[in-house]
Amino acid sequence: MASLRDKQAALQSGADAEAAVARLLESQGWLVLARNWRGGNGELDLVVRDGSRLRIVEVKLRQVHDCVGLDAVDGRKLKKLERAAEAFLQDYDGPVDEVCFLVALVLVGPDGWQIQLYDDPV
Question: N or C: which terminus of the chain carries fewer CB neighbours within 10 A?
Answer without folding.
Answer: N
